[in-house]
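Weekly puzzle thread! Below is a chain. First person to post its structure in token form gets bragging rights.
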Amino acid sequence: MQERQLISGCHDDSTGYNTQLLYFTCSSLSADDQRIYLISDKDGHPNVYVKDLNSGVEQRLTDNRHGILKSYVYFDGNPGRGLGKASVCLDCKRDVVYFIQDNLICKVAADGKVHILNNVPHGRMTAFTHVSDDGRLLCVPMTDGRILDYNPETEGFGLDRRPVYNIDQRVQQEQLNSYLCVFDTETGKLLYQKVVPLCWITHVQFNPSNPDIIMFNHEWPYKDCGIRRIWLYNHSTDQIVRVRRAGEDTFGNPRGFTRSANDWVCHEMWSDDGQVIIYHGGYANGPAMVGKYELRTEKYWEIALPDDYNAYGHFTMDHQQNLCCDGYFKYPEDIKKVRENSTDNGPDPHKKDGEYISRVLPFWDEGRLQWIPLCRHCSDWLGQDAHPHPIYNHAGTKIFFNSRDGKYVKVYASDVITT
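Winning reply:
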């Protein structure tokens, strides 16, 4: 077992600050793995930084002085003011960062020059954005602002002050809409806006091989999560299709669990070639699982995890479709730390008390996973920013992750063990 390597963050927890990776739907590393892009509040407000991993030199790329913008996950942020921490995404091939600040949709290159592309219309709430692999398109998911129309101080609960009401029920009852808003990254022009009724979209990802196809989600479905979470929109045909459907035609599942509307499904991600989607979740009244969907054949593979692998975690991929994970794994002799569970619980059935960063090799047809624990991440999981959200570097030689085991979130890495 390795020791984790501190990449960025304060060394002194008495006078420190928070530093975290960008969200896992994009890379936080330049294509050559020489620079890492981070969000840090070291100057008192969250801003985007780039750090040279060889020299250690950091450069601030944004100039935010108004705290955190209210959006998905950051429920108690400032309406219309501040940096949208959920909005920051990286075009790793061109070293261009996209972000929302004070409801302005912006981009900044490594030279530090900020360009305003467009703005978020009044009365809308944003979430995690995504840039196409060719760098031409930016998708900003938006939802009718009524979805988060509440006072976090009096009507919020938990560490993140999320609403006491069921958000998805409000969407259905009040017939709220989400919007896939796609912008030209050079001109800032809104190229199209696809209205998705009765839906709360928070995650969007362009297909790496075909930017006409956007994968999107229904966040926190209060019912039928097993079949309502993952969707595809094809702009060329203007069609929306469901990805995970109920059924028994699942490969590599020797334990015999079938796909059900009552399952919990989350955190979908494209493979590099745009032909495979992975996701994870849990079977209704059953164990956790990780799944794969093949676009061309419409086939499913799902691997049920051991019953005692019940610690919530995320799965992400490297360029060869090997996985990494920040939860689930445990040694038989492990005695878990007694700690307060994360207060940002969604509909997921598993406790957020995972301990390890693991490399995970899937053998889909055999229905098994090979777990290679690399290090303890030691995060307390308290709040979205403390979720480790591990990602591979592009070379597949390191895994980077967030952790807070004191007062502040920091970024760490672990070397990859290949066998």
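Puzzle host: Confirmed. Bonus trivia for everyone else. The first strand starts at residue 5 and ends at 8.
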